[in-house]
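[Meeting: bench + compute handoff]

Bench side (C.D.) handed over the final construct sequence. Compute side (W.E.) agreed to return the predicted structure before the next meeting so the bench team could plan truncations. Sequence as handed over:
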Amino acid sequence: MLKGIPAILSPELLKVLCEMGHSDRLVISDGNFPAESMGKDAIVIRCDGHGVPEILDAILQVFPLDTYVDHPVNLMEVMPGDTVETPIWDTYKDIIKKNDSRGAAAVGNIERFAFYDEARTAYAIVATGEKALYANIMLQKGVI
């Protein structure tokens, strides 16, 4: 156990977050995301018993977001014609606001298949058991 580190962050995940450099990207995926096939060239960390919001909140307590890009946080856009609601995005924006002064302005959207393309180049993917749809989120690391 460490002081000041959220207990939900496993030693494996802490190691990966520490290894990441400026501009490296981390995907926190929902339970439907093909983490293993997208992460063939990435480190995949399983957090199946947890949801994205609790993992995101813990990570952002130790992970600086990139200040050199407009949107260091990106969400997977809802496909045209899909009627899925995404209230979880508001939860994400509240969490981001707690940890980054830009708040919701730091958040962008990426079309679904472009998100998959970007995820294939991520340093790591944290696979959660999140049940909300379109709950995938990509973070770009900044500097301290």
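W.E. noted at the follow-up: Helices lie at 11-19, 35-38, 52-60, 88-99, 112-119. C.D. will use this when planning the next construct.
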